[in-house]
Amino acid sequence: MEPIEEQWRPVVGCENAYEVSDQGRVRSLDRIGTQINGKTGTQYMSRRRGKILRPATANSGHRYVVLQGRTTRTVHSLVADAFLGPRPAGAEVRHKNGRPDDCRASNLEYGTRSENAEDSKRHGTHFHAGLLECKRGHDLTDPRNLQKSKTNKRVCLACRRDRAQLYKAGQQVKAEGCCINGHPAIPENRYTNGVGKSRCKVCVREKKQQKKAA
C-alpha cells in the first residue's frame, strides 16, 4: 500500500507566509526580508528558509501555533479553513474521534456548539459530565440528587432543595419580624453596612466571638 501524499494548502489570511497540511502540520515559507545591522545601522536583505512549526498544547488539549505578528491560532481551525472551506455562521470545529490534538482534515468537521458538547460527552471528555459532585459538595452519583433539564443540562436537586428551604426560612423571618437566626428585628439590633444592606448586630457580634474562640 502506497503512503498517502501529504497535501499542503495556504493558510487563510497568511497565504504568502504559511501553509497547512491535511495531516495537521503548519510550516512557514521561504521569504526574503530587510534587516538592520545593530552595529552599523545599515539595512541588508536576508533570506529565511521555511520550516515546520512546532505547535504548543493548551490545557484543553488543543494544539496552537504562533504566526507572524505574534498571532496565536489553533491548528484545527487552520486545517478546517483550508480543507473544509469557509466556516458557517455560528459553527464550531468538531473532532470526530474526540481527540483535540488530532488535527487531520479527515478527523474534522463543522457543527453546532451543542453537537460539539454532545461529542465530548460521548467521548468522555466533557468536564461537567465527569463531575462526581456539584460545587457545593452534593453527591451527583446519587440519582436522588440529579436531574436533566429541558436543555439536557445536569441539575443538582440537593441544591434546589436547599434554596427552597432558605427561601421558606426567609419568608418566615419576614412574617415573624426577626433575623434568620431568630433575633428580634428591632431598631436596637439593626444597622446598615457600607453597601446599604441591613444587618443584625447580634448575629455579627456572635460571629466575631466564634472567630475568636476558633
TrEMBL record:
Record domain NUMOD4: where: 6-67
Molecular function per GO: hydrolase activity, acting on ester bonds
Domain of life according to the entry: Bacteria
Protein name in the entry: HNH endonuclease
InterPro entries given in the database record: His-Me_finger_sf, HNH_nuc, NUMOD4
Domain HNH nuclease span(s) in chain numbering: 74-117
Signal peptide: none
